[in-house]
Amino acid sequence: MDNIEVDGEALTMDDLMKEEITRLEAGSVVTGRYLRKGADGYFFDVGQKREALVLKEENVPDDLLNDDVKLLIENPSSKNHHGYALASYRKIVKKDAIVSLREAWKNQTPVTGIVTASVKGGYAVDLGAEGFCV
After folding, report:
1. Domain boundaries defined on the chain
2. What is the pLDDT of residues 81-93, one digit of tens each?
């Protein structure tokens, strides 16, 4: 069988058929490779020659550059953002933190966090998700 060249890579038809196609839908979780930071936010390669934009307000850490990161697709083709899929990094981090906190609570495992503010009756704490301690 002849090879087909795709993006400079020689592939067989079997290779193409095995490639998983993930449809970007609002609410879906995808893995994206952090490509670059731009004026509007952070750009991720989410496959299928598509990029997703995470808005700059989410403050994606620079040390994740070139890493694969889980993203929540909020809008698969945002007209307000030049057609890029609009995604969230922080919502996935928060969701994963809540799952970890529930597991720690269930197993009575201590957790660590960063005190972010002194509030009436205790402290606001960053545990990946907002928390409160006395």
Report:
1. 4-88, 94-133
2. 677 888 999 998 8
